[in-house]
Amino acid sequence: MAFLLRGAHAVDPQVDLDSVCDVLIDDGKVAAVGEGLEPPEGCEVIDARGKYLVPGLVDMHVHFRDPGFEYKETIETGARAATHGGFTDVATMPNTDPVTDTGAEIRYQLDHARQAGLCHVRPIGALTAGEKGEQLAEIGDMVMEGACAFSDDGHGVQSAGMMRTCMEYVSQFDRVVSAHCEIETLTTHGVINEGKASTRLGMFGWPALGEELEIYRDIELCRLTGCPLHIAHISTAKGLDLVRKAKAEGLPVTCEVTPHHLFLNEDDITPAYDTNLKMNPPLRTPDDMAALDEGILDGSIDCVVTDHAPHAPHEKDCEWEIAFFGTVGLETSLPLMLTKLVNPGRMSWKRLVEVMAVNPRQILRLAPVRIERGSAADLTLIDPTAEFEVTPDYLVGKSKNSAFMGWHLTGQATDVFVDGRRTLADGVVA
Ligand SMILES: NC(=O)N[C@@H](CC(=O)O)C(=O)O
Ligand SMILES: [Zn+2]
Ligand SMILES: [Zn+2]
Fold this sequence. Notes:
Layout: E1 3-12, E2 17-26, E3 29-34, E4 44-47, E5 52-55, E6 57-62, H1 75-84, E7 87-92, H2 103-116, E8 120-125, H3 139-145, E9 149-150, H4 160-170, E10 177-179, H5 184-187, E11 192-193, H6 196-201, E12 205-206, H7 208-225, E13 229-231, H8 237-248, E14 253-257, H9 259-263, H10 286-298, E15 303-304, H11 313-316, H12 333-342, H13 349-363, E16 379-389, E17 408-418, E18 421-425, E19 428-429
Parallel strand pairs: 1-4, 1-5, 6-7, 7-8, 8-9, 10-13, 11-12, 13-14, 14-15
Antiparallel strand pairs: 1-2, 2-3, 5-16, 16-17, 17-18, 18-19
Helix pairs in contact: 1-2, 2-3, 4-7, 7-8
The structure holds N-carbamoyl-L-aspartate and zinc ion (2 copies).
EC number: 3.5.2.3
Keywords: Hydrolase, Metal-binding, Pyrimidine biosynthesis, Zinc
Pfam families: DHOase
């Protein structure tokens, strides 16, 4: 099937493209980019005037809960949510049951993703067997089967010696270690950021120091081992300063931020105590939020990820202390970035494409996708003016635990193409 997208504003900093043009998709590839293109026989013409066309969006940190917790999300329902959110690629974290720590588990995910037939699913393998932090996982086997990166996300690897071994081992392959930075002896029992929020509410605090110390440790291990390091869901101003310094020294260090840490802080938790605002790491202070905002705009933060963490109603509809950690995010990430940063003119479209498409592909060692002849036709078409409210019905994923429920947002993906197949058509998942 061929498609001619007419009159979209195409943005791709990789080929210095930022103009209104036509794009022809044929045989899974971008077949032509130009003005006044004529549709070949049997080609579907899509009126894309007023919309933006960008290289397909990538979310390099999601939890699809499959296998093991399919009541929260499956690879199929997660892929539907990703597609609805405008993504062509997602990288899935290995804290499944069993943990994704062997080649067979990587193959399971790729097989199920193929059956779903929507976005590309790029499995991240565990660093240690069972994410127990004791023995190396089958890292070589997982590379062979297609693991795009390695992480024990859900925890930090607590032992510095074990983390060193992991990084030495991974450094033999062209892969990055994504580190959930948290020293658990500092965060045990914590349910909310330590400081004003924990004191006022009388709840166990979760200190920023737990993240900052482990970021420091992992940067030094990166220096020692040469293994590329990616800091997952960075949430503190000091942690970001450490990443900035490491980058300035030329170390192979990158980091990501979530929309919830960019657009919410600990003061948003009261008065409602909405447990959808309980996540790991916790919402931090307004000052941390301001530092992350600066970091995503100035290039210190490399990409935006959702940490899409689906949970069932009974795991959230309870007291704050016992609620599970996490919020879904795939279907609100792009709309939030547009509403809060791009539409008000604080972030350029070029920068949006860098943080949501170009940089995550680089970090995951995926082939680049460009809006130029011959590239894979993995593309996202965006209506920056579409207004909607985040409601349970708007979310097509299996779980509805969104920290942004009830928000009014402007801008969303209308169409997605994956290898030239139209997986989202006028806002409807194929
Ligand atoms: N972020 C969360 O609050 N939860 C994640 C775990 C994680 O990303 O560390 C989960 O798997 O539920
Ligand atoms: Zn994590
Ligand atoms: Zn996570």
